[in-house]
Every structure is written in structure tokens, then in C-alpha cells.
Amino acid sequence: MSESLQSQLEKAYFSSIIEINKGEIVKGKIVEVTSKDVVVDIGFKSEAIIPRNEFLFTENLDIGREVDLLIEELEDEEGRLVVSYQKAKRQSGWNTLVSQYDENDLVDGIVARKVKGGFMVDIFGVEGFLPGSLSTFKNLSDNEILGKTFKFKIIKLSKQKQNFIVSRRDAIKVEKEKVRQKLWEKLSIGDIKKGKVKSITDFGAFIDLGGIDGLLHIGDMSWKKINHPSEVVAVGSEVEVMILNFDKENGKISLGLKQLTPDPWQEIEEKYPIGSTVQGKIVNILNYGIFIELEKGIEGLVHISEISWTKRVTHPESMFAIGDTIEAKVANIDVSNKKISLSIRQLDKDPWDEIQGKIEINSKVEGKVVGFSRDASFVQLDGGMEAIIYNKDLSWTKRVNKGQDILKKNTSYEFMVLDVNSEDRKIILGLKQLAENPWPRIVDEYPIGRMIDGEVTKIANFGVFVKLEEDLEGLLFSEEIEEKDKENIKVGDKVKVKIIKIDPKFSKIGLSARIDESEPENSPAD
């Protein structure tokens, strides 16, 4: 070989060898793969040999694949080129990270491994620290975390130290806020949305629409009256709701559930005309009446006064039970306030229309005592009509404080009809009127000034009641008792008293124990 040809070949050989420097990243092609090594041609005088374990087993190691390598040493003690695939990958990843991302940016990363206090996250081949307190992985297993890709927020990025810290918790907040903004942008009144019941209050339920919460008010849950939202929805349940209104500035959304179904009150007057007879189930009983469900979302009220023409109803629950099916007549419909008034008593004729000739004043009737009030007793007559007898009409002579002193409940007595008032629907009875008024006789027999022996029956602050004869008492006024005798008087004592006042109109006799023995005694008229 001539000298010139050899020189040309050497020049060509050396010109094909690239110049490389320590710390430089160069590209090469895989030319051979063994179980231990990967051989890469980087165009240098010797090929680079990289340990197989620097590559993930899932990576593509096909012949001809181009990879980046970091030059660690041009020659080791044995004269071999020393390179690193992982370090090149980390350096390249770091360069990508710092050139494209800043603190507070979101980035995808793979949870590589667990370490003390948290996790290491691989981003572009560079590992950053994820503190456990910022991970949100508390209730997840290792299989659900390690090797999985998540979105993270870079909360600290140190270019000098080439390390960074990420947060999954803050990334979730950012992602949620983005979702919220998208949801707000897509909201439109009348839209139907799926949501999950987040919480329940007395006035409604809060529904999570997938990032933003709306209020489903109790009034928009059902066309029928409900007492509490829990009757319709439950925490954790999924519901479809309608967007009724929203205020993006104040973050408020009004939702509706009943609006997804037709309003049952439309054409209600045609469906249940006034005067028609309807049938329904009792769904609620209150002190003032009973509620009857005519259909889903439609309830009518039978007021306590519309239960019976003749009976005095004070406790509807004693006559009806929830779940009972009953008939009633439509008395009135208030569409604007969604109210239907029903009547049970109007299913029958009003007995007051035929009262004339059946019950007359001064006639005698028989009735059963069914109840008491403070100043009167209630009596049920034959035919079911109810009458009233006041305490003052129970006895001519006794001071009656309550009807129970004379009458017994569920016991029948004969009475006299004192008044029939059709306008006020009231029949007034009397018991004492069955006997002759004794007061003309009493006035004659107990003239003022008469002295008589009596028996103490009751002691009050204002005086002492004294029995003068059977069913006749007088009041011995407190000021008409000698001071020395006041503390010694007791029930059952015999006392001598003088008539000082008599009032037939109010059935009262006034007595005095201050007696002058020299004073002449008035005797009853002959």
C-alpha cells in the first residue's frame, strides 16, 4: 500500500470518529443486546457498553433504536469508554422539566417507590419527592399507587440542587377548580343534571353536580307536601335534577326535582270539581284535621269542623288512622295556594235542616254525657246530635264548679231543652229545670235575720260553706267570723249562723257568725 493511500485511509478513519467530552450527552444506536449488556454505537473509536439493568424490562431494546447516553469517562483503568443511560435520561428529563415547567404547574408523574415520609415520583426520568401529607394516598394499597400515573403540582423546584417537591393534594384542588369552571361555563337554566346527595338539612338537600354544589329546596322536591327532605332523598343517593336558577358570582345554584314530572295541579278543578265525591288514603293526622292523598302529589284537608255534623270532634286520631281509605266531598279548591278542602260530613244531609219539630224548647230529651269543659258538659242525643249543658243549669242550690260534680261520663240522663239555636248550631240543655225552682220557698223560709244551726262543709280563704239543709248551702263570710274562732273551725263542725243576705238570682245565701243573743230572731213566714 502506498504511503499516500495509507494516509488517506487513516484520515478517513479518524474523521469518522466523533469528538466527545466528559459530561456530554450523545446519541447512539443499539447494535447488540445480551442478557447482561446493551451495546450502543455512538460513532466513537469504541462502542459503549451499558449494563442491561439500566433499562426497564418494559422498554423497547430493538436493534437500531436510538438512545441518549451520558459520557462519564472517556477511558477507565482498562481503557474503556464509561457511559450511563439512566444518568442521560435523568439529565435530559431535568432539562425538559426546568425548560417547560415552573413551580405551581401541573405535570404527569409515575409513583416509583415508597420512601421514609412519602414517595418518589418519576417525571421525565427524574425523581422528585412527594410528602405523605400531600399524597392523598392514605386509604390506597401499594398496588393502587406504585407504577401508576397521577397528576401532580410542582410546589418547589430547585434548579441549583436539581431536586423538586410535588403535591397530589394540590393537584386535585386545581383539577377540581378546572372542572368547576367548565361546569359553570356549561350551565344553563332548564338543564337536567345527574348528581349525588351530599348532605341534608331541614330546608333541603345539597347536591354535588360533579364539582359544584346546588341546593335542592324542600319546596322543589315533590308536588305533594313533605315534612322533611329525608322523605324524598338520602345522603349518597344519585338523583336527576333540573337547573332552576344559578348565580355564578355568588356560587349558588337552585335545583328542582319535582319539575321533572308534570304538575298534578294543572286542570285540577276539572279533575276534582267542587261537590264531587272522592276517595283517598289518610296520610297525616293533625289536631286541626286529616290529610287525604287523592293521587301522588295531591292531598286534601278535612278540617276538624268538617268531620261530623253532630259530634264534637276534639282528637281526630281517636276516629281515624293513617292508611285508612275514606270517602269525602270536595268543598273548595284554591289552585294558587295548591289547597283542596274536603268534607266528610257533607256526604250526609245536614241534620240541622230537619231539626224543626224534632227537638223543641221545654221538651224532655235523653242523652249520654260524652265530655266536659271548664264551665259546661257535652251530651250526645239520640240521632247523634250533640248538646251542651252549662254548670249553672245543673242545680238550683249547689255551687257547681265542674260538671263532674253532678254528672258522670258515658252515663245517660234526662234533660230539658232550654234553647235550640239553628244559626249557631247549638242545643242548650238544663238539668235543674226538671225540678221546681226552690228559691221562692227558700226566700220565705230563710228571711234575713233568721238564726239557724248548720254544718261546715268546706273552708276557703274568703269564708266557710255551711250546709243549711239537703242540697242547700250558705257562705259564712270570713269577716263575719270572730277572730278567736277562725283558726278553730273545721269541716264537720256544727255552727250557729244568721242569714244576712239572700240572692235568688245567683242562688246565694250570705251568713254571719257574729250573733247578738239579745237580738230578736226572725222566724220563717207562716
Number of helices: 6
Query: Could you name the CATH homologous superfamily of the largest domain?
Result: Nucleic acid-binding proteins
Helix content: 10-25%
State the CATH topology of the largest domain. Answer: OB fold (Dihydrolipoamide Acetyltransferase, E2P)
Number of domains: 6
Structural class, please? mainly beta
Topology:
Elements: H1 3-16, E1 25-33, E2 37-41, E3 48-51, E4 66-73, E5 82-84, H2 85-100, E6 106-115, E7 118-123, E8 126-131, E9 149-158, E10 163-167, H3 168-186, E11 192-201, E12 204-208, E13 213-217, E14 238-247, E15 252-256, H4 268-271, E16 277-286, E17 289-295, E18 298-303, E19 325-334, E20 339-343, E21 364-372, E22 376-381, E23 386-390, E24 412-421, E25 426-430, H5 439-445, E26 451-460, E27 463-469, E28 472-477, H6 483-486, E29 494-503, E30 508-512
Parallel strand pairs: 13-15, 18-20, 28-30
Antiparallel strand pairs: 1-2, 1-4, 2-3, 4-5, 6-7, 6-9, 7-8, 9-10, 11-12, 11-14, 12-13, 14-15, 16-17, 16-19, 17-18, 19-20, 21-22, 21-24, 22-23, 24-25, 26-27, 26-29, 27-28, 29-30
